[in-house]
Design goal:
The complex is a heterotrimer. Chain A contains 11 helices and 2 strands, in the order ααααββααααααα. Chain A is mainly α. Chain A has one domain. In chain A, helix 1 packs parallel to helix 5, helix 2 packs antiparallel against helix 3 and helix 9 packs across helix 10. Chain A is globular, with a radius of gyration of 19 Å. Chain B has 2 domains: about 190 residues, Rossmann fold (3-Layer(aba) Sandwich); about 180 residues, Response regulator (Rossmann fold), CATH 3.40.50.2300. Helices cover about 45% and strands about 20% of the residues of chain B. In chain B, strand 10, helix 10 and strand 11 form a beta-alpha-beta unit. In chain B, helix 2 packs parallel to helix 13 and helix 3 runs parallel beside helix 4. The longest helix of chain B is centred in the N-terminal third of the chain and has 24 residues. About 0% of the residues of chain B have low confidence. Classes of the chains: A mainly alpha, B alpha/beta, C mainly alpha.
Chain lengths: ~290, ~425, ~350
């Protein structure tokens, strides 16, 4: 049972981390709480379904096109909806809720409330220390690792990364130093939504594709990033590990209470916040903000 | 913005007036409101089943109401019950007051149907439920007959009977495991979503299965909307179960099907899996749910002389087989038969007739019991059990149970992984 | 005596209400609602208006908390649902009349509100919003774990009504809304409301002025929760069942959406938004072709309002028919030459 908890928890945490990273990134840079983050994840999954299943494209191509198209969609949404209202925190929250609702309704109108699926890139399972793990999950874990390294390289080794870190550190100063803060936010939004799209095409094959599929992951993502500290990438990964393991342990230790796994995870988040209001690795808010 | 909003409003009001006066001028039809979540499969099939019944009846000249031929008119009512119970009650009231429905059929989610039942009873309108399984809908008829007598349930059978059917099928599957796979101790894992309807079934299973010679290795209760059950399935695998006894009505049923297939568990899932009753299940699980089995209502097997013609005309018209909410077809035929026999639209007279009569439906002989639930058992409604075999949903039960057998049954099969170990 | 009261009432009406177009609109709206049953008692129409009254008060109570004190609560359904559940439970299990169980439920909601307020004292901005968002979700899960008490996903059924009479229910709902919203509006413009404004804008300054900001913030939570609880309790007794939907994320979002669309820090804004949007989406439902587009239209309207009327619908309209006197900050009808209070020249 211990090895079950270890491996299942690790994989679940990896999936959550993939979902939470992009969300955290755009908040860190532009203070945007993008509620529609997981809606982009949903749109990516549907696109793979349309391109691969309905139009018969090879799935690797469908996945590539979906990730690129959703990234473009994210930038477009940023330009049209978020940028004009981004000065008001609450307006951004509501605007992105409306955006998510629009995506949800469009999916219901085009595809109905039916449950669909997109195929896994790799099939079968591998037995690790007596635990059965499907290969798609192992692949997801690998992607999480690559993504983490990629993001880290991007942030530390590239000019864009430097600009992003500076902006995240202090937007006012970055602006004063003549940096194009709006442009950087747009680039970050693209990266963030791109990550959501990758999660959509990697994670959705594990679950079902349906118009409400964005809601549950959204709640978990919110819990992770708030727990880890908004805007902190390290916090997101550690938050994902905590939430992922708490959920897995709930299922294994209290099987009859496995429906409580989300509630237990969320309660832990509330408890941590009661002690550390800025999350584990968040920047403490100054009184003026 | 404001001007356009106002213009829309005025336009809407005018259209409402025009529409309602228009329908009042037409030959007086019998208006049946079909209630359901129309964006979802359940509501879609409510509507489709009702359409087939309407067209058959109207093509034959309509309903004979005391010598006068009346056509059936269907009113589609979007209840939005998947998201909001209060929307559902508002929709039911709209059907009765604004659309002047004579009868209501349909409804899917128990909590919404319970609330809509109250509204229909307020107006003393006959409401034929098709889809909601909760026992309380019928218990209310027994406890407060004068208020709730206008409610009847056409489908599904009440939860207690579903339980009896489940254990009957389970016994036959266990027997096959003993004879075919040569295993004496059959181990069962209970996988039930956290929902009120499943609670009595879980208790009954924990109590009955040992008496039936099966060992219960554990009970897992995921959420009905869980998107991942790998942890549960890993634990079940470790417990060495042969049968995963499922009680699932939500989308988690798909996840169980897909993930158990991908993990190639050496156990066969059987029980109630509402998602697995749908034609789209095979695609939704990416073809991974081979050998998963569930109780079901419709299959192209000859339950009565009406079953195969109905299933076939449904497939011909809509390109997929009917789900159990398509029993609105039976509901409307029950109404038509009752109206013709009594020669009235008076609700009380119709209730008396419907209580006494045995109707010949697509799922068996429909005889309402004292709770206005369909009677279950040999000679009445038995239900079916089906298994997904290589992309096809085939019926395997009842096959000789209590002397009941329908034309077109196929044998139950085991996953390869189960045969190997 | 009677004459004097009437005369005083008339003076109040003339000097406080009839001087401003926006207040006349509110008066016409209130009177219109009150006399409507004289013209029609169509149960479906009344049902829509009852629901609208409930959601309007709910959204207004959110505005009082989020708009005035700046604590943007994303889980407002917690208060609505707590009261709905507890009132229904008290009524069904103890047989206590709804007239008593609703206030008890609302008080319990108030207690929960105070507790949440204490929990949220140290939380800022999005941390507060997101923490409050998950609280009702946790409660729902706990409710699922004790179905013997809460009825699980079916909720509590056979909840008694105050009265079966639709018109009577209508008057209860409408009067509740008018009284509670007037109370919130008055409170928002009182010294208490002013302090909440100040806390929202600059908490440190308020604290420096020697005021206990924590106490005010907690009180805002408590008051808002009691108001939401009163309509939540009534909702349960009107619909006759209370299920997990009263704690749903969607319900919490609705309060926020109605608030922002109508315009926060106004109380009137959310009410107007509900009374425009709710009946409109119901009307659309009359057309099968539109049924599918209801939520989509709703979301698009929200987005358009955000982009083109960032402060909300009601302030947008008010700014077009009224102006603020630059010297005494009182509102005047647009086009007036002199301020109605301080006589400052407004002609430029």
């Amino acid at each position: 049972m211990l090895q079950d908890i270890f491996f299942t928890g690790l994989i679940n945490s990896g999936i959550y981390a993939l979902l939470a990273l992009g969300f955290s990134l755009i908040f860190g840079v532009a203070r945007i709480v993008n509620i529609s983050h997981t809606a982009f994840y949903m749109v990516a999954a549907y696109m793979v379904y349309v391109l691969g299943h309905m139009l018969g494209l090879p799935f690797w191509l469908a996945i590539l096109v979906a990730v690129l198209a959703v990234t473009a969609l994210g930038v477009l949404a940023y330009k049209l909806v978020i940028e004009p209202i981004r000065e008001h925190d609450t307006a951004v929250l509501i605007g992105t809720i409306a955006l998510a609702a629009i995506f949800q309704e469009l999916m219901i109108i085009f595809f109905g409330g039916h449950y669909l699926s997109i195929p896994a890139l790799v099939s079968g399972y591998t037995e690790v220390a007596g635990v059965r793990i499907t290969n798609q999950r192992l692949l997801t874990l690998a992607i999480v690792g690559v993504t983490l390294i990629g993001i880290w390289l991007l942030l530390t080794r590239s000019r864009l990364g430097l600009a992003i870190r500076v902006t995240a550190g202090d937007r006012e100063v970055a602006n004063l130093m003549g940096m194009n803060v709006g442009g950087i936010a747009m680039w970050t939004m693209g990266i963030s939504v791109g990550l959501a799209a990758i999660a959509g095409v990697m994670v959705a094959p594990l679950f079902v594709v349906d118009p409400l599929m964005w809601l549950d992951p959204l709640i978990i993502v919110l819990a992770i990033v708030v727990l880890g500290g908004l805007g902190s990438l390290k916090g997101s990964v550690i938050g994902a590990l905590i939430i992922g393991y708490v959920e897995t342990m709930t299922v294994f230790l209290v099987p009859a209470g496995s429906f409580l796994k989300a509630a237990v995870a969320l309660s832990i988040m509330v408890l941590v916040l009661a002690i550390r209001p800025e999350g584990l690795f968040g920047v403490a808010f100054e009184e003026e903000r | 913005m404001v001007a356009r909003l106002l213009a829309t409003l005025v336009w809407l009001v005018i259209s409402v007036l025009v529409l309602s006066s228009g329908s009042a001028l037409a030959a007086d039809p019998i208006r049946v409101a079909v209630l359901g979540p129309m964006g979802f499969l359940q509501g879609e099939h409510h509507w489709r089943g009702a359409q087939i019944a309407r067209d058959e009846i109207n093509d034959a000249g309509g309903v004979d109401l005391g010598g006068e031929r009346r056509p059936i008119e269907l009113i589609q009512i979007e209840t939005n019950e998947m998201l909001s119970v209060s929307d559902a009650t508002t929709a039911a009231e709209r059907a009765i007051t604004r659309n002047r429905a004579d009868f209501l059929v349909g409804g899917f989610r128990s909590e919404a149907v319970l609330a809509m039942q109250d509204v229909a009873m307020d107006y003393q309108k006959i409401f034929l439920g098709v889809g909601a399984a909760h026992g309380e809908l019928g218990e209310r008829v027994q406890e407060d007959y004068d208020t709730y007598k206008y409610w009847f349930r056409v489908s599904p059978t009440k939860s207690a009977d579903l339980g009896r059917q489940l254990f009957a099928v389970l016994a036959s599957v266990a027997e096959q495991i003993r004879t075919e796979l040569g295993r004496d101790d059959v181990k069962v894992a209970l996988l039930a979503e956290r929902a009120v309807w499943a609670d009595p079934l879980v208790q009954a299973a924990e109590h009955n299965l040992p008496n039936m010679g099966m060992e219960v290795v554990g009970t897992w209760r995921p959420s009905a909307v869980a998107t991942d059950v790998t942890a549960e399935l890993s634990a079940i695998n470790r417990a060495g179960a042969d049968i995963i006894f499922t009680m699932l009505s939500g989308p988690v049923g798909i996840v169980v099907g897909r993930q158990s297939g991908e993990m190639e568990l050496a156990a066969v899932p059987f029980g109630i899996n509402v998602e697995a009753q749908k034609a789209g299940f095979w695609q939704a699980t990416d073809g991974k749910a081979n050998y998963l089995a569930t109780l079901d209502t419709y299959s192209p097997v000859e339950v009565t002389e009406y079953t195969i013609p109905f299933v076939e005309s449904f497939i011909e018209r809509f390109g997929e087989p009917p789900a159990y909410t398509a029993a609105t077809y039976d509901a409307i035929r029950v109404l038509a038969q009752s109206i013709e026999a009594t020669g009235t639209l008076d609700a009380d007279t119709l209730v008396d007739y419907m209580e006494e009569t045995t109707f010949r439906g697509t799922a068996g002989n429909l005889k309402f019991d004292e709770r206005h639930d369909p009677t279950w058992g040999p000679g009445f409604v038995t239900g079916l059990a089906v298994q997904w075999q290589d992309g096809e949903k085939v019926a395997f039960w009842p096959n000789g149970w209590q002397g009941v057998s329908y034309e077109g049954m196929r044998p139950f099969r085991f996953p390869t992984a189960m045969r190997e170990d | 005596m009677v004459v004097r009261t009437m005369r005083r009432g008339w003076t109040l009406l003339r000097t406080e209400v009839l001087v401003l177009p926006s207040r006349i609109v509110v008066l016409v709206f209130a009177v219109g609602l009150l006399v409507l049953p004289l013209f029609t008692t169509d149960p479906y129409l009344l049902r829509i208006l009852i629901m609208a009254s409930i959601f309007a008060t709910f959204a207004a109570s959110w505005d009082f908390l989020a708009g005035y004190s700046g604590q943007v609560n994303f889980g407002h359904a917690l208060f609505f649902g707590t009261a709905a559940y507890s009132s229904a439970l008290i009524n069904v299990n103890l047989g206590i009349s709804p007239l008593l169980s609703i206030p008890i439920g609302a008080l319990l909601a108030g207690v929960v509100g105070v507790l949440v307020g204490v929990l949220c004292l140290r939380l800022r901005g999005p941390y507060l919003s997101l923490t409050t968002l998950v609280l009702p979700i946790i409660v729902v899960s706990v409710f699922f774990a004790i179905p013997d008490i809460t009825g699980g996903e079916l909720g509590i059924r056979r909840v008694e009504t105050i009265t079966r009479d639709r018109v009577a229910n209508y008057y209860i709902a409408v009067c509740m809304m008018l009284v509670l919203c007037f109370f919130l509006w008055k409170l928002g413009n009182s010294r208490f409301g002013l302090i909440l404004h100040a806390i929202r804008e600059d908490q440190v300054a308020v604290r420096a002025a020697g005021l206990n900001t924590s106490r005010y913030k907690i009180m805002a939570f408590g008051i808002s929760a009691v108001v939401a609880g009163l309509v939540g309790g009534f909702y349960g007794h009107f619909v006759r069942s209370v299920g997990p939907a009263v704690l749903a994320v969607q319900l919490s979002f609705e309060a926020v959406i109605f608030g922002i669309v109508g315009g926060i820090v106004s109380i009137v804004g959310p009410v107007a938004a509900v009374f425009i949007l709710y009946p409109l989406t119901e009307l659309l439902a009359d057309f099968p072709a539109f049924q599918e587009f209801r939520l989509l239209a709703f979301a698009l309207i929200v987005l358009l309002v955000l982009l083109f009327m960032p402060r909300g619908f009601v302030p947008w309209v008010r700014d077009r028919i009224e102006q603020v006197c630059p010297s005494c900050k009182n509102r005047n009808t647009r086009g007036r030459k002199r301020c109605r209070v301080c006589q400052t020249d407004l002609s430029d």
